[in-house]
Amino acid sequence: MNEKRKMLAGGLYDAADPELQAERDAAAQWMARYNAGSGLPAAQRLAVLRERLASAGDGTEVRPPFFCDYGSNISLGDRVFLNFNCVILDVVPVTIGDGTQIGPGVQIYAADHPRDPTARRSGLEFGHPVRIGRNAWIGGGAIILPGVTIGDDVVIGAGSVVTRDVPAGATVAGNPARPLAQASR
């Protein structure tokens, strides 16, 4: 199995592999072009997103600057909104559902490293998919860690670090993010 297949399967892989480096280089060139197009009409920016991402639904808006590892492992539903300076480390699939709104500076990490120091010294990495449901609201500066699933209609407070799954309809905040009492508005 080549390094890319290992990566996509969530196994240990060598990120220095020439094929993976070439894909990250291509993604960097695409990001430079996308990020330079902040003044383009929304339809043109969406067309550029669709060149690189696995999918980008109708009405989706990603405000530049935007950063990712590959782009090809990111799936955005319809009417997804990512504000300025979002980072998605997409070594495995990152899926964001319809109508989800993501604040500025949010970081979504699917990339991970071994906990064992000997294994970590080998330079090998792995990933865990991140799934964010429909109609979620993720406040600015939040960090979503590898392997987390966020349900539909969830609210994540600004600056939160989400270390575990969040069930549908929950509101969480803090570091680590914990459930809050529901407030109606």
UniProtKB/TrEMBL annotation:
<dbReference type="InterPro" id="IPR001451">
    <property type="entry name" value="Hexapep"/>
</dbReference>
<comment type="function">
    <text>Acetyltransferase implicated in the O-acetylation of Nod factors.</text>
</comment>
<keyword id="KW-0808">Transferase</keyword>
<comment type="similarity">
    <text>Belongs to the transferase hexapeptide repeat family.</text>
</comment>
<dbReference type="InterPro" id="IPR018357">
    <property type="entry name" value="Hexapep_transf_CS"/>
</dbReference>
<dbReference type="Pfam" id="PF14602">
    <property type="entry name" value="Hexapep_2"/>
</dbReference>
<dbReference type="GO" id="GO:0005829">
    <property type="term" value="C:cytosol"/>
</dbReference>
<dbReference type="GO" id="GO:0016407">
    <property type="term" value="F:acetyltransferase activity"/>
</dbReference>
<keyword id="KW-0536">Nodulation</keyword>
<dbReference type="Pfam" id="PF00132">
    <property type="entry name" value="Hexapep"/>
</dbReference>
<dbReference type="GO" id="GO:0008374">
    <property type="term" value="F:O-acyltransferase activity"/>
</dbReference>
<dbReference type="InterPro" id="IPR051159">
    <property type="entry name" value="Hexapeptide_acetyltransf"/>
</dbReference>
<dbReference type="Pfam" id="PF12464">
    <property type="entry name" value="Mac"/>
</dbReference>
<keyword id="KW-0677">Repeat</keyword>
<protein>
    <recommendedName>
        <fullName>Nodulation protein L</fullName>
    </recommendedName>
</protein>
<dbReference type="InterPro" id="IPR024688">
    <property type="entry name" value="Mac_dom"/>
</dbReference>
<feature type="domain" description="Maltose/galactoside acetyltransferase">
    <location>
        <begin position="4"/>
        <end position="58"/>
    </location>
</feature>
<dbReference type="InterPro" id="IPR011004">
    <property type="entry name" value="Trimer_LpxA-like_sf"/>
</dbReference>
<keyword id="KW-0012">Acyltransferase</keyword>
